[in-house]
Amino acid sequence: MNERDVDRLLAGLVPAPPPTETRHRALAAARAAKVLGTEPEDAWSRLWRSRPVRLAWAATVVALLLAHALLSVRGPAPAGVSVSPAHLANQAEAEAELAAIAELPPLRLGVLPFIDPLGRPPVPSINPSTPSPRRPS
Amino acid sequence: MPAIEDPTDGAGERPGDAVSFTMPVEPWRRLFGDIAGGRPGALESLYDAVAPHLFGLAVCHTRNREDAADVVAETFARVAQQGPRLRSVRDPRSWLLTVARRLTVDVARERARRAAEPIETAFCVAAPPIEPGRRVDARRAARLLALLPDHQREVIYLRHFADCTFAAIGRIVGIPTFTAASRYRLGLRRLRALMEEAP
User: Fold this and answer.
1) Distances, alpha carbon B64 to alpha carbons A100, A102, A118, B122, in Å
2) What CA–CA distances, in Å, run from B18 to A26, A36, A137, B62, B185?
3) Is the pLDDT score of B99 beyond 90?
């Protein structure tokens, strides 16, 4: 018994025919379904199948790509933009304030923190002009 | 094989077209287009071409001829419900088998009302009308197929009697192509063993 026997058995056989009345039932069911109307399509399917919507989508994508390309080619805005003197003065003032904040002077030079987190003794200053660190009394 | 007839519209007449289950995709798509366009006789042509294959597939699962007939009728209702969307079906034959199989699975799941018929009456295959002498073979094949697990039986049915490729079977059943081929191979092996047990 080998594969050929199985093939020989199945070869030439056909699917079982349905009962005769099934033809009438199936066609009647199809006609009834047609009369009742097609299944309502969901919104996404309607959008996907709509040619104007697809065209609009394609046009939007193309417009966005063109705009992106155009802006990339033009580069940054030109330097010679006229600005009012009052605006310039305000801007300089703000920059000076920012610089002052960024360069805060130390409150007391040569003073170590009260508590050394590692428990080491205070190290004297190497710079002779700087007073030695003092322990708080 | 009945030819597509068009009693009303001579423009759509294509005398060369004959509807059969094994015809290529393009004539299938034309037939679906005709059904979508409401051409008289198109549904009847479709029925003659596919009903036995859909019925056999349904019997494979349900082992009940009445349930299988329900599946065929419901499949045709689904076809009619699609309306103009039928024109966008790429592979109508696989689409029909897929719809019928899903309906069959639904029927088989919810079926508590009807028990499976005896194997002797719920055959999924038959002898060809021109070879009535093969009825004994058909009965034997149907009996052996009924002893296979459902998933192997349907793959063997789709391959042998619905002329599907493994890729198409994979799409219809919802499994990878390799799995379809594997189920087919295991099914044939089991069938061989059954033939040896009951020669």
Assistant:
1) 91, 87, 87, 6
2) 21, 30, 112, 31, 33
3) yes
Instruction: Report pTM.
Output: 0.63
Residues of B in contact with A39 (CB under 8 A): 81-82
Contact B125, A14 (CB under 8 A): yes
Contacts of A16 in chain B (CB under 8 A): 52, 55-56, 59, 123-126, 142
Q: Indicate which of A1, A3, A10, A35 best probes the interface with B, i.e. most B CBs within 10 Å of its own CB.
A: A10
CB within 8 Å: A30 and B76: yes
User: Six-digit token pair at B174?
Assistant: 């919802």
pLDDT digits (tens, 9 = 90+) for A119-136: 666 655 555 565 555 555
Instruction: Please tell me if residue B95 touches chain A, with a CB cutoff of 8 Å.
Output: no
Record: contact B161-A29, CB cut-off 8 A: no
Distance of CA A133 to the CA centre of its chain: 54
Domains and CATH numbers, chain B: 19-122 (1.10.1740.10), 126-199 (1.10.10.10)
Q: What is the pLDDT of residues B169-194, one digit of tens each?
A: 999 999 999 999 999 999 999 988 88
Q: Could you say which residues from 96 to 125 on chain B have a Cβ atom under 8 Å away from some Cβ of chain A? A: 123-125
ipTM: 0.77
The tally of CA atoms less than 13 A away on the side-chain side of residue B97 is: 28
Chain A residues within 8 A of B57 when measuring between CB atoms = 15
Q: Which of B184, B167, B148, B159 is nearest to B63 (CA)?
A: B148
CA-nearest of B4, B171, B174 to B90 is B171
Of B59, B83, B195, the CB nearest to A5: B195
Tokens at residue A64, please?
Answer: 């966005």
* Secondary structure class of A15 (helix, strand, coil): strand
Q: Nearest to residue B3, comparing CAs of B49, B58, B68, B38?
A: B49
